[in-house]
Task: structure prediction
Amino acid sequence: MSLITVDIADLKTSADPDAVIVTYALGSCIAVIVYDPVRKAGGMIHYMLPMSETSPEKAKERPAMFADTGIPLLFHTMYEMGCKKTDLIVKAAGGGALYDDHGHFAIGQRNYTILRKMFWKAGVMIAAEDVGGAKSRTARLFIATGRCTINSVGEESEL
Amino acid sequence: MIERTEILAGIKKLPAFSTTVVRLSELVNDAEAGPGEFEAVVQPDMALTANLLRMANSAYFGLSRRIGSAREAITLLGVRRVFELGAMAAVDAVVPETLPGYGIDASVFWTHSVAVAVIAERLSKERKLATPMLTFTAGLLHDVGKLVISSFLAERIEALRTGLASGDTSLIDCEQNLLGADHAQIGAELGLVWNLPQEVVQVIACHHAPDVANEGRGDVMVDLVHAADCLSHSMGFGADVGGMHRQVDDVAIARLGLRHIDLEHVASRALPEIEGLSQFGRAQKKGTGA
Result:
């Protein structure tokens, strides 16, 4: 098994059946996980913020930092691997929130809202998600099978 | 509940904090002190000097030539940066390999500490505040109480998980419920033992309760470190057993005048600096957490 780690503001893809793509410590950040069961290929992005207009120069250096520049890049990278949009199974995890009565730190919520808007516009369905709450999460994608798991506070669940 | 004698015994078990860095923290607040005085304090501490030079000569700083003395480091990087690197070396030296009570290893604790230090300074700049000289250091040290109470929490980890899972109890309240003490309180005691400057001890004591700082009048460094702690957890730096079970203090955020756009801007700018500086820790990122 080879472990491919997706850092914060990073995306990775793989078609290696031995590979597991993993990202750790999703706080308010969101991981979008895509898998093509036909070509047995998958990818994951760990984006931190919703909109690249916050820091256009950072978006040029690291497009995976933002939902609006990173998510299209993830899909295009999958298309370059020969995947078709209609075959892709799309899942999402993260977008956690602190105890924040006035929503000062509603980054997770904003990250999720932009994701829904983008997918609605592009006609992409979310097959499964584990989003929100006061959780920190680790997400894994097993390329051989497309299995996704989420770990939070020592407990593992299937996504 | 834990007894005070147990806490004090826990504090005694930790390595001593660098007295050189404590002396430097007094100097940075002294308007009269010049680079020569900094050099005179740093130079005799060979371990600190070696660490400083290792960091200053790393690719991160991209200096055009190799530097071989504390004097050159001060000239090229400035007094403030050299002091901050010294503080990093001092904190790095006291972090144990694991913090079992929080379900993390040294790298997660370290990266969170660096993240809070970097973000606190950047939030201050974002709001165009006069950044207190010890902001970075206070950010680095805000969670040192965890080093003391981790082992006590480890004995109660299941009860801690149950407490957190049961609803809306923050990590620090769970600590109080289980131990009758929390990492902010104990960290402040540790800060006194280490002779840290009073304003740093106040940040450690109040970083989860900015409303009580300065007898209720508030303190800009406490507010900055509180906001930085929250943003660091949002970004995923410091993911421990407490997850996101942390309370944002509205008054502190309002006092700083922070809007979500400021927080997101700072997050995007801080990320490369956090990645760059955290590599100087002994424990490299191993990807643990959650």
Notes: The first helix of chain B runs from residue 4 to 13. Chain B is about 60% helix and 0% strand.
